[in-house]
Task: structure prediction
Amino acid sequence: MEGNADVSVYSDSVRKNIESIPQEYLDLTDDELAKKVNPNLKLFELKEAFWQEIFQAQEAGKVMTVSKIYNGRCSRQYFYDKVIGDPLRMAWIMSPLTPYEDATRAALNKVTSRYSELIDMPITTKKFKKIDGEWIEWEEVDPKKALVLLSVIKNLEDRIKGTAVQRSVNVNTSEPKGASKAELDMDTVEEKLKELEAKLGGGSDSGRLGSPEVLRGISRTSEAEIRGIGSDSSNSSDVEAEWKEVDSSSKERS
Result:
């Protein structure tokens, strides 16, 4: 019942309430206690805080500070009267917490053991129709059952092969804050491109980024954007045309 707790860390009030727990409660399993107590979220918070304080007191080699358990969660009177003062609730609180990973793994194993039932489940359903006074029976695939089977198959594939992870790179093409127009020259553009190529890991795409045609196009575009700051929107079409020209010439050379 007391799990791995060192009884020497209990305060006098906690020890007194533990000793008053009837034997019939001590003989119950954790699940049986939980069913009888039917704990709400507040009780789960208090139980978590109770065990955290026990572990911290054990590490520090001192007696637990009970106020750390209920402060910010409930009143002192409620904690002493309705929580540890209730033998059934006290018995439930004293049942050790199951680590999250262990509880999740156990639940997953239980669910996995039922996969075979779903895989073996028929996905067809019987249909009946009266034709010329006679009832005709046939089977057809039930879409709902088929979706359940597909979901099971996908879950199994994800567990065996691992779920695919999508990775993306975001490139900010706007003018950096605090950067002057003079800084946006050819050398700066080339340096930024090299940094980007290093992050991307090289390859054919990075070679294309560093090609003379693309570099000249970026340089012209940067200058055009600088000249166009504060002007009308006509410059944006010229810039877009230059980009298309550069991209087209690069494809022809590749």
About this structure: The chain has 14 helices and two strands.
